[in-house]
């Protein structure tokens, strides 16, 4: 995906301090979620973490799930399942489009 095609929600431009303020989560907790591979910030050349608005939403979902008593490994499993389902849906959509184009099917 070209950089200019990335949604504003997915641009990694927010520092961990601002993320902490927006979510109410401590910086330590945010780094812990990164260690557990639940969140994936980008790093600047100097190693500063940068997050997106989508990351804020993900962190809030994680915090809600933790508050409900769900363990981080369960959250990761759920997130992986959702990601795989989304990829499968996108692939199927692309294949349907190719088939429709091949046989000149219009909706």
UniProtKB/TrEMBL annotation:
Species whose genome carries this gene: Fictibacillus barbaricus
Keyword terms, alphabetized: DNA-binding, Repressor, Transcription, Transcription regulation
Domain HTH merR-type: 13-81
Entry keyword annotation includes NAD: no
Family annotation (PROSITE patterns): HTH_MERR_2
Name of protein: DNA-binding transcriptional MerR regulator
Gene3D superfamilies found in the cross-reference section: 1.10.1660.10
One protein family per Pfam: MerR_1
Example GO molecular function: DNA binding
